[in-house]
Every structure is written in C-alpha cells, then in structure tokens.
Amino acid sequence: MLTSLYVRHFAVVEEAEVTFGPGLTVVSGETGAGKSLLVDALMLLAGARADSGMVREGCDRAELAAEFDLSALPEARAWLEREELDDEGACQLRRVIRAEGSSRAWINGRPANASQLGELATLLVEIHGQHEHQALLSRNHQLALLDAFAGHEALAAQVRELATQWRELGARIRKLSGGENREQRLELLRHETAELEKWALPPAELAELEGSHKRLSNAGRLAEGAAGVVELLDGDSEFALRRALGRAHAELGKLAAIDPRLGTVLELLDDASIQLGEAADGLSRYAQDVDLDPERYTEVDNHLARLHELARRHRLPAAELHERWTTLQAELAELEGAGGVLEKLASERVRLERDYAAAAGELGRSRRDAAGRLGGEVSALMAELGMAGGRLVVELEPAEGDEPDAQGRERCELLVSANPGQPPRALRKVASGGELARISLAIEVATLGKDSIGTMVFDEVDTGIGGAVAEVVGQKLRALGAERQVLCVTHLPQVAAQGHAHLRVSKHSEGDTTRTQIDKLDDPGRRDELARMLGGVEISRETRAHARQMLERAQSA
User: Fold this and answer.
1) 460 touches 490 (CB < 8 A)
2) Per the count of CB atoms within 10 A, which of 60, 63, 125, 316 is most buried?
C-alpha cells in the first residue's frame, strides 16, 4: 500500500508531500491545475522515461519519492530480498531528474536502474488510464489474471513446475549425451584433465612453487647479501657490530663497578652479544646452504611457464586451475558413464511429458470455463459503466510449439467491443483512453481480490460519462477500495463523493510564478469542493446543500 508521496520542483509543483491511507482516495481540481501530476510521479517512480521538461522552470532537478507498506505484499518483499535491496520490511522508491535530462534512482537508499524500478513497481502499483504500458495490456498479465479469476493457481503452478523439470532434464540429457560432438568432447576432456593433473597445483602448493622460483632466481644475490651482512655483524673490521659491542660491554663493565645500577644494562648487552652471534652464525650457514641448482631452477621455471600457458587457455587465474581440473574430471566421469544414466533420464522425461500433458489439459479446460464467465461478468459491468452493448471476450489460442511450456498450452488475449455492432478488438489496441480506463475498471471489479497488487490508480476513469453512470463508476471504485487501496483522478462530483479521502489540487499564480498546491480535505472542505465541481464559478446555497446531501449519501452507503 502506498503510504506517502513526495515531489519537489516537479513540473509546476514546488514542493508537496501527501500521505495516503487505505480505501479510495479521490483527486480533484480545476482543469489545468495538475491533477494528474501525482499519477505522473508514480509512473516515473515505476521506471517511466524521464525528460528535462519535468523539472520545474529555473530549478536544477526534480525529486520524487514514494514509500509503501509491504505487510500485505509478500511478492514485493521476496523481490527485494532476491535483489538484496530489502531494508527490514521498508520500501522507498526515489528518483532524481536533472534539468539536462539525466536521472538517477534508488530503492531503499541503494542505487537502482529503471528496469529494477519497473520490476518492483509491477508488484506495488497498477495504473489504469491513457498509458499504453500498463500491466493490464500485457498478454502475460491477462493470462495470470484469468488464472487468478479461475482460482486454479495450484494447477498452474503444477504445470509450471513440470515444464521446468522437463526443460532441466532435457539440458542434462544434452550435456550427458554431448550431442553430435560427444566423442570430440570426450577426447578434449581426457586431454585437458591429463594436462591439468600433471601441472595444476592446489593453492598452497602453487604458492610454495612460486616461492621456490623466487628464491632460485635470486640465489646468487641471497648468498652474497647474507655473507655481506655476516661481515657487518662479525667481520674483521674494527667497525663490525660484534667488536663494537665488545668494546661497549668492556667500558660499561668499568662503569658498573662504580655504580651497580648499571648492571641491568650490562646484562642487556650480554644478551645482545649472544643474539648477535647467533644471527651471524645463522646467516653464515644460510649463505653456505643457498641452493644454486640451475637444473632445479629450470624445472621450476618450466612448471610455472606451463601453468601460465594453461591459465591463458582456460581464461582462469593459475590458482584456480586445480579446481578446474576437478570440475572437468567430474564431467569426464559423468560422460564416460552416461549410457545407463541417459536411459533412466529418457524414461523420466517421458513420464514428465505424460504428467505435463495431463496437468496442462486440465488447466486448459479450467481456463476455457473461466474465460466465458469472466467475459460475461465484465460485459455486464461495462453496461453499468455507460458502455451499453459493449462486451469483452476472453480469447484463448494455442501456444506455439509442442514442447511443455511453463504457461501451459494456451495464450490469452482480451478482446473488447466498446459499442454495439463493432467486432471485438484486442484490448491493447483500444484507442480511447476513457473507454480503456472504464474497461480496466470493469475487469478489476470482476476480478476483485484476485491479484496481489496493493495499489490501483485510475487516471480520468470517468472521461466522457456523467449522471447516473458516473455514480455507478464511483460506487464501483469505492467497492474496489474496500479490498484494495485505490487512487482516482476525477472531475465528476458523483465519483469524488464516493472517496474515503479527498485530495484537492489547486494552482496559484504570483506574478510570473505559478505554483500547484495539494491539500487533503476535511469534511467541510470536501463539501465546498463538491459544490465547486457541481456549480462551477457561481456556487449557490442550493449547490452547497446538494453537495452535502451527495457526500452524506455516498459515505453512508
């Protein structure tokens, strides 16, 4: 459920923050005031294309943010967790559009792209109106809606699972059989595993080999350097450290005889002399023992050269070649012993095809039954919504191909005839935005509670209607609001009166500056707004009384 929407420097809106509650929230205002800006903001937060014209004149950027309550939206929570964008159940969408045309987006404070915004938004909000890319126009969504209306989600899930298993089994069979190149693959695997077995090393052994190579390539320098340090420590020169330390010890011994407190320091010099001698002896032995074996160096150097060559060929770091050898060895063993396994897998695949055919057949029968019922219910609602003689036909056609398909063996297309005598046409090709909005409303009412979208938005759903039909539209929206959060932009008082909450959008001009303001109305404010919608510029006492009666009647229903 949408809980708040914040816009700043967006079109003619300087800054506004609106909070939303459950039920039906209606949005009204004079023509040109910017009633649809809230819908536009939601569309942008849903990943719609942005342009610099959306930034308020004189500002460097527009900011949009929306927060949603996900307590009743498990699919949205699961999506956030899967994308690692979850934040303890919170959901905030934010987008910044710059005056030069670029934009950035965030989900729960983490950078996101427009594609991610769009994926998440389809689980949060569904917008109906004159926008061509709304979810209801998607054939996949139409099929999912039909399945939800039919109440056979478990059967559809079974078909999906069987098709997935069949596809995964096919991939395994292809991998094991190796297709036409099985023998070539076996020959290559045998060659590569033998080569890697000879040269690849576990990480610890590779590190030791590299260390040996470094020592062997610098053996002369190591021996010479160690001998030089021994000369500095314990050489014949009067500047050798051990000799200097001896002189210091003798001098300090004389002083300690005078002041015994220097005895502690003298002991430290004794220890230093011992350690210095041990260091000199150790370095001397090291210098004599340094390995100057050129044959061993050639062997190690050759091994590393082969490892680097294999690393380039396999496009892996040398440290990962041993793991690659393990993987290829397992694949080789699997291919060499594939005969019996393939026979079992082929038998299993036949069983899956049989089970899929049975489940898909049952799903198809359920879909055909539900298609007729859904078409009838929506057609009846279309008549109530001022489209007398209009009808909706749920057309099912076979899916392409004979292989098990996760969506089943049918594809769905909603066909609509808006007027008597007109042949049904695909819903996605209906030209009139107002008709499309009312058809969408009829479908939503007919499938009330059948989908998982938490918020539905209807933009100018009442275009081209009035009178009793407008009141019916309002009643249907209010009924929808009892099950879902609904936001409706309207210019009809009959619809506005049905709202559980009412927002008014107004535009004010001050010199060369125009600002749009969004207010949440209390009961007196709602009566005044309904009176304005009923009476225009001149609002009489009778108009106010009519508005009060309309509001009281709608709210008591």
Assistant:
1) yes
2) 125
